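Section: protein folds

Sequence with per-residue tokens
===
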Amino acid sequence: MATTQQANTGNVGRTVAIGAATGVVAGLLANFVRKAAVQAPTAFAGNWDKALAAEHAAALKIFDLLEKTSDGNTGRRAFLLMQLKHAISKHAFQEENVVYAMMRDQGLTDAADHLNHEHGYVKQYFFELTEMAKSDPEWLPKLKEFRGMIEQHMREEEDDLFPKLRGQLSDAQNKHITAAMNKEGLKLA
């Protein structure tokens, strides 16, 4: 009788271990799939500069949704602000760790430092908007001020600095930046 109980206990332990291992593998796989889905629009946009421009457009769409909220839509504002913060944080991580670094390597140090400096103000706006009550009548004007700063930053990148950098680089270097940028994006996706 004792050996039957020991065998059953061993089978239960093995079953629990297999179940736990399966759960861990499924969780890791689900996380990878989620990350790939978040990074996919950037990866499919093509070259690094087009991908960053697509991320700019996606962020502006979230701004549009936020601007349509009223002071009473506090839950929606909080949720959309969280989405915007995640999207822009991932985007900035890619720029700072790959694109701005390459700009410095290519002699565009002042421009890279300027853009990086502006990212500090992006964080300041996120802090202020997060700390403000979402029902505060000044919340939406602060958001619009933030959007104006972001749009100017985007135009400077898309219209001037990114084309300048892209033109200075070989096709192989541009492909390398695209791959490196997508790799960085997966880290925060």
The mean pLDDT is 89. The two ends are 54 Å apart (CA to CA). The helical segments are 2-44, 48-67, 74-105, 109-131, 139-168, 171-188.
